[in-house]
Amino acid sequence: MSLSPTPQHEKGPALSELPWYRRLNLLNTTLLIFLLAVIFSGSQIEGNERDLDILKNLGRFLSEFFPPDLTVLKSTGSALIETVEIAILATFFAIIISLIIALGAAQTIGPTWLVFSMRMLLNIIRTIPSLIWAVIAVAAMGANALAGVAALTLYSTGYLGKFFSEAFESVDMKVARSLRGIGADPLQSFQYGIWPHAKPLIWSHCIWMLEYNIRSASIIGYVGAGGLGLQLHAYQEFHQWDRFATVLCCILIVVTVLDFLSEHIRRRIARRDGTNDALSD
Amino acid sequence: MQDKKQEPVLSARGIGLQRGGRWLFRDLDLDLYSGEFLAIVGPSGVGKTTLLSCLCGMLEPSEGSVSFKLSGTSAQKPEDLRSHFGIVYQELQLIPNADLLTNVLCGRLGRYHSLSTLLGFPKKLRQEAYRLLYELGVGENPHKWAKHMSGGEKQRVAAARVLFQKPKIYFADEPASSLDAYYAGRVLGLLRQEADEKAKPVLCVLHNAEHIQRFADIALSLNQNDPKAHKMRRVRPVNEEAEI
Predict the structure, then answer these.
(1) Which CATH number belongs to the domain containing residue A96 in this structure?
(2) How high is the ipTM of this complex?
(3) Hey, is the C-beta of A211 within 8 angstroms of any chain B C-beta?
(4) Which candidate in B89, B91, B93 is best for mutational testing of the A interface (most A CBs within 10 A)?
C-alpha cells in the first residue's frame, strides 16, 4: 500500500463542513422537539382566572395542620404496621413472580418470542398506576388489606420484572458458556455462572422496591385497599387536618428511615459486589 | 508413551479456520495419543487460541473434523464429551462473585445432576478442592471472592479447577502466563504429571521456550504468513522419562 500523499494543491485539501441536516442526530432532534414542546405547553396551560393570593391560601391551609393531634397516634401506629405488612408481602410475591418472568424476558437467556411477549406483558403492567391497580383489586376482592397486597404485587411485578431481566442481561455470559463447555447443564450454568453475578443487583432492586412499596402502600388506602391511606382519606373527608398531620409525620419518619437504610444497604452491596469497581478496592 | 497400534485419543483431519476472509490455519492433521503433552506455539495473533477452541469443540472449524476416542465412553463428538474436557481458558472465566472454593468445585459440575448441586457441593468434595487450592498456594483464604484476587492467583485457581475436575483430556490456553517461575513450573508440572501418571493427553498453548522444552512432548507451531505451513516437531523422544 502506498502512503505517498497527493495534495490537491499546495495548501493541502480544503476542509468540507457538514451540511446542517447532517448534524441533526437523534439527540439534537429530540432536544429541539422538547424545547418546541415547552414553548407550546407554556402557552396552553392556564391557572384560575381569579387573582388569588396563593401564599396566603397555603399558609392558612398549613396552619390547620398544627399542632398535630397525637391522640390518634395509637390507631395510626397499627395502620402503619398494616401498611408495612402489605408492602412486605407484596414485595415478596412480586419477587417470586418477577424472577420467573425475568428469566423469559432476558435476551441472553430466553428465546426471542418469549422475550418479546414477556416484555410486552411487563410494559402493560407498568402502564397502569398503583392506584388504578388498587381500584381494580378492591373491586375484585373488596376493601381490605389483601386487595392492597394484590394491587402492589401486580404493580411491583411490572418494575421488578424489568429490573431483574436487565440484571440478567448485564451478566457477562462467557462464564456461563465456559461452564457449559466443561459439561454443566443449563440450570447449573445459570446457578453458578449467572446467578452469583446478578444476585447483588437483584437484591438491591428488591430493597428499593420494598421501600417504594411502603410509600405506595400508604396511598392505596385512599381507594380502600387498607393501610394508612384509609385513615388519611377519612381525616381529609372530615377536614381533621391536625390528625392528618400526625399520619403524615408518621409516614415521613418511616419513609425517611427506610430511605436511609435502603440507600446504605444498597451501597454496601454494590461495593462488596464491585458493581462499582472504583469503590470496591 | 506413543504406540502406533494404539488409537489416537484426539484425531483432527484437515481442519482449517477462516476468519475475516483470511485463513488462520489450513489442512491441519493431528493425532494425539494418551499421555502425550502437545504444546501449541507461535507468535501472538497467529491463531493458537482459535486452534485450541476448534480442537475442544468450543468453535466449529471452517473445514475438517475433530473426533475423540476417550476411555470409558463411546461418544466421539466434542458436544457429547463436555464433562470429560478440562479447559483452562485464556481469560480464565472464573466466577467473579463466587469464592475460590466454589470456583474450584465448579470444575466437577458436569459430573453431577443439577438437582444434586442445587444446594451446593458435598463436604468431602469441598475438602478435596481446598487441598488443591492449598497445594497451589492460594489456600490462605478459600472464602474470598475470585474477583478480589490478583491475576496470578486467579490463574492458579483456574488450574486448581481443571485439576479438580479430573477430566480425560486437558486443553489449557497459556495456563502459566501470569505466574512466577515457581508456580509456572508447579502448574505445568502437575499437567505433565497427569500425562505421565494417568496417561491423559494435554494440549497446551505455550509461549515460553524453556517450558516447551521442559514439559512438552510435541510442539505444533503455527505460521503467521502461511496457514498451511504449520510444523510438528517432537521435543522429547518417545518413552523418555519425564522430569518434573
Answers:
(1) 1.10.3720.10
(2) 0.83
(3) no
(4) B93
**Which domain covers residue A250, as residue numbers?**
70-280
Name, in order, each residue with C-beta under 8 angstroms of A202's C-beta and a sequence gap of 6 or more: A99, A163, A164, A167
Which helix or strand (DSSP H or E) is residue B12 part of? Answer: strand B10-19
Tell me: pLDDT of B1 over 70. Answer: no
Grid cell digits, residue B132: 488443591
Asked if the structure places residue A7 within a domain, the reply is no
Percent above pLDDT 70 for chain B: 95
Given an 8 Å threshold on Cβ–Cβ distance, is A183 in contact with B56? Answer: no
Residue with cell 454496601: A268
The three cell numbers of residue A92 are 415478596
For A106-147, write each residue's pLDDT tens digit: 988 888 999 999 999 999 999 998 889 989 998 998 888 888
What is the least distance, in Å, from the CA of A164 to any CA of chain B?
Answer: 17
Domain segments of chain B as ranges: 7-81+206-237
Nearest to B117 among A180, A188, A274 (CB): A188
Taking the C-alpha atoms of residue A246 and residue A71, their distance in angstroms, rounded to an integer, is 9
Domain count, chain A: 1
Q: Is residue A213 domain-resident?
A: yes
The answer to whether the CB atoms of B97 and A199 lie below 8 A apart is: yes
Domain-located, residue A240: yes
**pTM check: above 0.80:** no
The answer to whether residue A5 is domain-embedded is no
Q: What is the mean pLDDT of residues A226-245?
A: 85
% of chain A beyond a pLDDT of 90: 31
Strand ranges, E, within B85-221: 85-88, 169-173, 202-205, 218-221
* A28-62 per-position pLDDT tens digit: 899 999 999 999 998 888 877 676 778 888 888 78
Q: Which CATH class is domain B7-81+206-237?
A: alpha beta
